[in-house]
Amino acid sequence: MPLKQGGLQHQTVTFKDGSTITELLLVHTICSVPATDDRLAYGTWELEWTVVGGTKRFEGASGTKYASGTYQVR
Fold it and tell me: What pTM does this model have?
């Protein structure tokens, strides 16, 4: 779960061996269409994170992680 700190969201992922990757949220977009009559609410979402560091096997890590999708809500 992302943490909010100073207006920016970041998260640190810890792996079984204790290695970590820390990421900063760059883009968080949600496009939502409300439910009408017999139709479900639906929309799209996208997230883009930049890797700002890591420990152990991810020390010096950098890069970008991107995810997107669609959803429906009853």
Answer: 0.66
> What is the rounded distance in angstroms from the CA atom of residue 52 to the CA atom of residue 22?
6
- Amino acid (one-letter) located at 8: L
Cα 38 from Cα 49, distance rounded (Å): 36
Residue 45: name the closest of 25, 74, 20, 62 by CA.
25
Domain ranges of the chain: 3-73
pLDDT (tens place) for every residue of the chain, 74 residues total: 444 445 678 899 999 999 999 999 988 888 999 998 888 999 999 999 999 999 999 999 999 999 999 999 88
Tokens of 62: 């950098």
